[in-house]
Amino acid sequence: MENIFLEDKRYILNTYRRMDLNLVKGQGSFLWDDQGRRYLDMFSGIAVNNLGHGNKEIKEAINEQLEKYNHLSNFFVSESVVNLAKLLVENSFGSKVFFCNSGTEANEAALKLARKYGKSIREDKTEVLTFYNSFHGRTYGGLSLTGQEKYKQSFQPSVPGINHIKFNDCQDLKNKVSDKTCAVFLELVQGEGGIKEVSNEFIRDLVNLSKEYKFLIIVDEIQTGLGRTGDLFAYQGLGFTPHIITLAKALGGGLPLGAMVVGQELENVFQPGDHGSTFGGNPVACAAGVVVLSKLLEKEFLKEVKRKSSYLLGELIKLRDRFPQIILDIRGKGMIIGLEVGDYADKIKQRALEKGVLLNITSGTVLRLLPPLTITYEEIDLFLRVFSSILEEL
Ligand SMILES: Cc1ncc(COP(=O)(O)O)c(C=O)c1O
After folding, report:
1. Which residues are annotated as a binding site?
2. Which residue among 44, 157, 170, 301 has the highest number of C-beta atoms inside a 10 angstrom radius?
3. What is 4-54+299-393's CATH topology?
4. Tens of pLDDT along 2-24?
5. Measured from the CB, is residue 222 less than 6 Å from ligand 1?
6. Where are the domains of the chain?
7. Which class would CATH give 56-296?
8. What is the tens place of the pLDDT at every residue in 309-324?
């Protein structure tokens, strides 16, 4: 290949502002470029590589499954698929799983299921509410659920019957909910929306209204799930039970895999033929997923994520106290942390890259830290050293 950057531009549709970096290898929390330079990966493929890069057990599980077969069809049972579903069910509120390939597809499944559930109660119980500033994916269902105009404006009309409520605004929820509402979709920490946490008060009202109006609470755990917030699923940290959660990102250990987990009362809403996917629940991705889940469920793993998070947040607060004009706010929990840095975001990202740290920006002004959950204290210190040296320069 003559020049990968030129050929990338020549052959691939321009939908991402790609960085000027040719990464050729990853191990643990680090990536290396084609010049042999090492980078600390502080965004893990946007919350995908929760166990870091090059995990040996994931590779072994993938290879073992590849030796058997890499694809059958959802018309046949498959051991790794059943094993992963069992792990998800046994460690959540859920009782059954539907597998797909991505986050947006998991939300599509949930949207369809919610409408079929609603119609089983009354024909016009099909309305859906989601938050403004939310992000739920790029296909038409996911896009329509998303509460940010910038993603949607060029692609209207959206799927009908989806309205938005102000973030954490109980009164707005009360005003907009009705007997026609079949579901409320929400992220418990808005990821693309700038790392904003839902309040306990909002959840309390949501749960009460859901009982009164018989709508489903559908939690999009695509970014927050699988240990990211320090709990296996973010809803567990808030102490309530949703009706459905949607998962993807970290689920397949770096391979494409999504899932919708439903509670017992919804087990029979979908009947054969109602929904499906050729590749959904690919056996190789599920074999990797079994390793991911098993690791997250090890006794000390998530406790250690919480301890490392407290350390990182504590040190970031000290930096905010030293540089209050740059770090305007710190939000998030576990290993999903947002630093509001206003117009400094791009400059910090660029300087970090030059100093060997990969950072991600969301909402234009927020540095979104999504390191592998396996990041060590030494690696956290490395990030803090680089970050504070950049703050000093600014
Ligand atoms: C909360 C949330 N929902 C849905 C999606 C869409 O997932 P995917 O890109 O796998 O379709 C994302 C992706 O960033 C997300 O963060």
Report:
1. 103-104, 135, 138, 220-223, 277-278
2. 44
3. Aspartate Aminotransferase, domain 1 (3.90.1150)
4. 899 999 999 999 999 999 999 99
5. yes
6. 4-54+299-393, 56-296
7. alpha beta
8. 999 999 999 999 999 9
